[in-house]
Specification:
431 residues, 3-stranded antiparallel β-sheet, binds s-citryldethia Coenzyme A
Length: 431
């Protein structure tokens, strides 16, 4: 909803009447379509701290209140009552599925969990100890070569690509884990399976594929995937949207999102946080000593799993993880000592002026690594698990941008600060 001339901007004597785009909830936006033409100026906003790239109806976050809703449903309700596949349907299609719709999605995904031999050979081409996120991005982009009937932008092909990405990403990640542990692939069952349970079977079953998946691990995994499923315009989702804006395929766009997610400031933070706990323990430092190092900044130490661009209060996802962490860690024989240390770290940080004035709180990555490790995943697999959870969000945003009539190819401007015009100097004339 746009309100004409609800804002004004005066630049070098030129007064611009600007329109304000009203949100349903949260920040309104000042539209500046004539700024460059009328004033010769662009805006500059590194990291897009104050800049909306689009309208979206998928996820709402209130960073001050610690609110997170997928399509209007509070994350705490989805965490306690929903399943990952149901949340995937909700994010992608905008509504909770009927029982028949959910069963149909589950069957369709189960039918497509197998991957082509070419993808298996692709995964085998890399060292077993390779960084899995570097492989995952390539595997996801390469998937499209085996399913050319799913790279179009029509409804049928977009729906087919959505299902294939949900189904096959789980299998690829399971295979990456198996290879990293010296194992080889086992084939997915083609029907009648629960998505998360089948992912865990593909990941942890012995080579004969026979394993009883612990229902507690299955529930914990389903919860963690729900908590990671979307988060509005985060770095990786914005990457998916801008790559998709060039009309690149959904596979290529999501593969770019995987690369963005791999950074330790983003999805790599869950692995970095566990590494931080291990380092503190190995160093013999007290938690207080480590916090002092973080505040001192001298060694560039950061409290990984803390802080957030949007949340200036407790990340509601972190709160949901912490709620189950104690129980899951004890049931799975996880490292309760590290969990206790993490809680001590949180307690100190939340009472320290340095963190309070910067509004730094635990985010979704602070405790998740402890749970993933207790479930049997090596740290290198933590960020691929984040990618598995985020897949429905990436798909939903790619599809939303595809159908948004205002979507244009993403092409930001710049403030040029380089050399002004100068003549070429032939080699012999150079000093
Ligand atoms: C995710 O955007 C999303 O939605 C992301 C995500 C999603 O679901 O997609 O929620 C997932 O990426 C969560 C964040 C995971 N990353 C980490 O846990 C890494 C540690 N945190 C940070 O590096 C940092 O907090 C960010 C990257 C998350 C946010 O960075 P900002 O918003 O750019 O803030 P900043 O770096 O400018 O920091 C502001 C101040 C600085 O101090 P001063 O210069 O004012 O003195 O806070 C300090 C920073 O040094 N600070 C930290 C800190 N985070 C910020 N100091 C110590 N430890 C930290 N973790």
């Amino acid at each position: 909803m746009v309100e004409p001339t609800a804002a004004q901007l005066s630049v070098d004597g030129t007064v611009l009447d600007l329109e304000v785009e009203r949100s349903v909830e949260g920040n309104d936006g000042i539209a500046i379509p004539r700024l460059l033409a009328d004033t010769g100026h662009v805006t500059i906003d590194p990291g897009f701290m104050n800049t909306a790239a689009c309208e979206s109806s998928i996820t709402y976050i209130d960073g001050e209140a610690g609110t997170l809703r997928y399509r209007g449903y509070p994350i705490a309700q989805l965490a306690s009552q929903s399943t990952f596949l149901e949340v995937a349907h909700l994010l992608i299609h905008g509504e909770l599925p009927s029982r028949a719709e959910l069963e149909a999605l589950a069957e369709r995904v189960a039918r497509h969990m197998q991957v082509h031999d070419g993808i298996k050979n692709f995964l085998r081409a890399f060292p077993r100890d390779a960084q899995p996120m570097a492989i995952l991005s390539g595997a996801i982009s390469a998937l499209q070569t085996f399913y050319p009937d799913s790279v179009g932008r029509n409804v049928e092909e977009v729906e087919r690509a959505s299902v294939l990405l949900l189904a096959k990403t789980a299998t690829v990640i399971a295979y990456l884990q198996r290879r990293s542990q010296g194992g080889d692939y086992i084939e997915p069952h083609k029907s009648g399976t629960d998505y998360v349970e089948e992912f865990l079977r593909l990941t942890f079953a012995p080579q004969d594929g026979a394993v009883e998946v612990d229902p507690k691990i299955c529930r914990a995994m389903d919860l963690l995937l729900i908590l990671h499923a979307d988060h509005e315009q985060n770095c990786s989702t914005s990457t998916v949207r801008i790559v998709g804006s060039s009309q690149a395929t959904m596979y290529a766009s999501v593969a770019a999102g995987v690369s963005a997610l791999s950074g330790p400031l983003h999805g790599g933070a869950n692995e970095a946080a566990l590494h931080m706990f291990d380092e503190i323990k190995a160093s013999g430092d007290t938690v207080d000593t480590f916090v002092a190092k973080v505040k001192d900044k001298s060694e560039g130490a950061r409290l990984m799993g803390f802080g957030h661009r949007v949340y200036k209060s407790y990340d509601p996802r972190g709160a949901e993880v912490k709620k189950v962490a104690d129980e899951v860690l004890r049931e799975l024989g996880g490292n309760v000592e590290l969990f206790d240390m993490a809680q001590r770290l949180e307690e100190i940080a939340l009472s320290d002026e340095y963190f309070i004035e910067r509004k730094l709180y635990p985010n979704v990555d602070f405790y998740t690594g402890l749970l993933y490790k207790a479930m049997g995943f090596p740290p290198s697999m933590f960020t691929p698990l984040f990618a598995l959870g985020r897949m429905p969000g990436w798909i939903a945003h790619w599809r939303e941008a595809l159908t948004d009539p205002r979507t244009k190819i993403g092409r930001p401007r710049q403030i040029y600060t380089g050399a002004q015009e100068r003549a070429y100097v032939p080699m012999d004339a150079r000093g």
